[in-house]
Design brief:
It contains 17 helices and no strands. It has 432 residues and is mainly alpha-helical. Helix 4 packs antiparallel against helix 6 and helix 4 runs antiparallel to helix 8. The radius of gyration is 21 Å and the shape is globular.
């Protein structure tokens, strides 16, 4: 029995918000849920997002270990990250919009079940080709977090939406960071296959937990699936703030992926020669990115989205300048990782806070459009980084990152000079 089926508190001390009657004034059947989220449920959603998104990143500190296990080159093994992100982009296009069409609790539980199967397949893979094929499935099914985030936005009061999204995204970002650390530690102690068996078990446990604590919510309108997918593209055409923020997000995640696709190779070679456990610990260096998520959401709530975006883009550019001597010096490398995580995650939280204010009845499709662009950028960054590292080493990687950061600042300048028409009254338009 789910929480929506009974009054009172559930197993984790949550009270399920009531379902919204059909025919809400704004056309959004979920509008009546706004302001009903409890602090405990916010934390549960944050933890769930962290566990769900971690599946995308377990492979990153293991790339050189996987290359050795499958007798493959660094460039070939680097495609694991690219294919996982490409699969995630496919899930964002094909699965996330369903959050505006069907009851989201059941959708989330089903997607997590499929993720568990894909992760188990990764643990059983006997060749790089099989592992890479399954990586597409792992990415495609690890979109539960991107169904949960717009659900949290629906449950939050409008004046607190940025901060709620910030907290939930903090959990997601911490999941990204800890996934690398735990992956390295578990692989060093028990082997890389154990990482994927543990991840599969976590998805089963998470599906069971969310089945108990999430409210049941139904959308107001029923669209056919093809029309639903077409409407996602229509949002990109009709919402200039969404288009611009999607471009900023894609560039930011491209820069992020340039670093994390190549970092394991740098740290495993001369002069560092670090093992899996130490490489995994580098994920903790980026904790500042998670800590700034609340700040980014708060700034967006107060109408400071545009200057905050510039500040975060400058952090990303400074990161790669700091990391240039990181080929042989550890302190500037660590400082650069911190700067990059703050910059990229700050832009990301700002973007999401703004786009969730555009259309209350289409938040899953807004998420799909934005996050698809985001992960296409990440896949492009990963693909480019593997080739650049093979040809030009760490210096080439930093130059590539600087070029992406320059593009970020160029898009910001264009947006500041030519604010989107018809954006009056949005947080972006009100930004000083």
């Amino acid at each position: 029995m789910g929480l929506e089926d009974r009054p009172g508190r559930g197993a984790v001390g949550l009270t399920a918000p009531p379902s919204r009657p059909e025919g809400a004034a704004d056309g959004n059947a979920r509008a009546g849920l706004a302001g009903t989220i409890s602090p405990v449920l916010v934390l549960v959603l944050a933890a769930a997002c962290g566990l769900a998104v971690a599946n995308l990143y377990y492979a990153q500190p293991l790339l050189h270990e996987l290359a050795a296990a499958f007798h493959a080159s660094a460039a070939a093994t680097g495609l694991i990250v690219t294919l996982t992100q490409a699969g995630y982009a496919a899930g964002l296009v094909l699965l996330v919009p369903l959050g505006d069409l069907v009851e989201r609790r059941g959708l989330i539980v089903a997607v997590l079940g499929l993720a568990a199967l894909a992760l188990a397949g990764s643990a059983l893979a006997g060749s790089l080709a099989v592992f890479e094929l399954i990586a597409l499935g792992v990415g495609c099914t690890t979109v539960a977090a991107q169904i949960l985030v717009p659900m949290a936005a629906d449950l939050a009061a409008p004046e607190r939406r940025g901060r709620v999204v910030g907290v939930v995204m903090s959990g997601l970002l911490i999941g990204i960071l800890l996934s690398r650390t735990l992956s390295g530690l578990v692989a060093a102690a028990l082997g890389w296959r154990t990482v994927y068996w543990v991840a599969a078990a976590l998805m089963v446990a998470l599906a069971a937990t969310l089945r108990l604590v999430l409210p049941r919510d139904l959308p107001a309108r029923r669209l056919r699936y093809p029309a639903l997918l077409r409407s996602t593209g229509s949002l990109l055409r009709s919402e200039p703030v969404l288009r611009r923020r999607a471009l900023l997000g894609a560039l930011g995640f491209a820069a992020f992926s340039v670093l994390w696709t190549t970092l394991a190779f740098l740290l495993s070679g001369a002069p560092y020669h670090y093992g899996l456990a130490v490489i995994g610990l580098f994920g903790l260096v980026g904790a500042a990115g998670a800590l700034c998520a609340n700040l980014a959401g708060h700034l967006a709530d107060r109408g400071w989205a545009r200057p905050a975006t510039l500040a975060f883009a400058l952090f990303a550019g400074a990161a790669f300048l700091l990391m240039l001597p990181g080929r042989s010096l550890l302190p500037p490398l660590i400082a650069g990782i911190v700067f990059l995580d703050v910059g990229v995650q700050g832009i990301h939280i700002t973007n999401q806070t703004l786009i969730y204010r555009l259309r209350g009845d289409a938040r899953s499709r807004l998420t799909s459009a934005y996050m698809t662009s985001y992960f296409v950028g990440g896949a492009a960054g990963s693909a480019a980084a593997g080739g650049v590292y093979a040809g030009w080493g760490w210096t080439g990687v930093c130059v590539l990152g600087l070029a992406i950061a320059a593009a970020l600042m160029g898009v910001w300048a264009w947006d500041a000079a030519r604010p989107p028409a018809g954006a009056a009254g949005t947080p972006e338009a009100a930004s000083p």
